[in-house]
Structure formats: structure tokens, C-alpha cells
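Worked example

This section walks through a single chain of length 82. The input is the sequence exactly as stored; nothing has been trimmed or padded.
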Amino acid sequence: MAPKHPKRPRDPNQWAKFMVDIATGAAEDQPSPGDNNKNPAAVQLGRLGGLRGGKARAEKLTPTQRADIARKAAQARYGKKP
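Given that input, the structure is written out below as C-alpha cells.
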């Protein structure tokens, strides 16, 4: 996925010049054109599936399976010692 804004300079002086360029119109501070090439219907369909996915999966699992998944997640998160 393309970034929404151009990468900003790390050097404070270069960043200040970039901000002046944006203010004077010498540079544009707009999203990259790659974001506009998405098919709105496909985006909506993908979001719809994403909203359904977790709930549908949870309804299919037995309580034992859910407990196993939760145990495995807790082990992955808390089981490692620093």
C-alpha cells in the first residue's frame, strides 16, 4: 500500500524548506495517485468480508477450540521471558 503523504525529510532544515515549498505551492502535499486507482466496489466487498470474518469463525468454533486458541495466544504473548 502506498503511503498517503510523501516522505518527509528528517533534517530539520530540509523539512522547513519542504514546508515553505508546500506553502508557496512549489511542492504538493497530497496523497499519492496510486490510492485513486482502487475499484470502490472491490474495496467495499473486501471490507464487508473483513467485518464478517472473525464473528463467523467464532460461531463455528467449539468452546474447547476457542480455549485452545486463547491459550496458544497467551503463551505467544506472555510466555517469552525478556
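What to look for: Residues 40-60 form the longest helix (21 residues).
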